[in-house]
Amino acid sequence: AINFFVVWFSSKYLGGEGRGYVSLFILNVSFIQIFNAVIGSSSIIYLQSRHPLSNIILLTVCWTIISSAIGAWSLGLTGGQQKINFSDTFFVAVFQSVLINNSLLLLCRNQTVWYNVLRLIQPITLVVLLTFYFSLQQLTVQNYVEALVISSFTGVLTSAILILVKCNLRDVGSVKDTLYDFLKVGFLNQFTNFVQLINYRFSFYLLAA
């Protein structure tokens, strides 16, 4: 319901061109998240009981930063007439991917309540910020993206605190073995998503060209 409200709100007050930009922006972030999920996302559920938690967090965070940077830069080169800001795309992709990974780690540790809380923090914060901008009559596309960055970071910060409090990070092991298992499982998990989203991204490119 919250996500539906955000879509309706942005469609009504950003106009057709603004909504088109936001849609392309979200699509770009989703495209990057597929690559981010190669080391992270659903693979965490399978690997979290087989490898030290500290290894999983280290690899997922490092990979997310590298993958998001490459992805945001690459998509900036193929954006057609609608250029997407690199820093906005990078930060939203990183924050949302880290939030997903941290949420799954908590869920795997039977922290169901906190998992559900994290699923609500980002969209609720986004609605609050959009309402604030609207009350100031300053709701623009850039403000929408800024609200998305801030709300995503809020979720990441909350999830990081919860992991430090609820999880044991003292165990260590072979990072190489953890990386190998992530790559083996992650590529298989994300291949179908990649093929589907590349079709959507190519359609946007043709329309914008």
Describe the structure.
By secondary structure, this protein is mainly alpha-helical. The chain has seven helices and no strands. The chain has helices spanning 2-36, 43-47, 53-77, 86-108, 112-135, 141-166, 175-208. It is globular, with a radius of gyration of 18 Å. The chain starts with a helix and ends with a helix.
Unreliable runs: none
**What oligomeric state best describes the polypeptide chains here?**
single chain
Q: Which bin fits the share of residues in helices? A: over 70%
Choose one word for the global shape: globular
Beta-strand residue percentage = under 5%
Number of strands: 0
**Which structural category fits the helices and strands?**
mainly alpha
Core attributes:
single chain; 209 residues; mainly alpha; 7 helices; 0% strand; globular
Quick recap of the structure?
By secondary structure, this protein is mainly alpha-helical.
List the helices and strands and how they pair.
Blueprint: H1 2-36, H2 43-47, H3 53-77, H4 86-108, H5 112-135, H6 141-166, H7 175-208
Helix pairs in contact: 1-3, 1-4, 1-5, 1-7, 3-4, 4-5, 4-6, 5-6
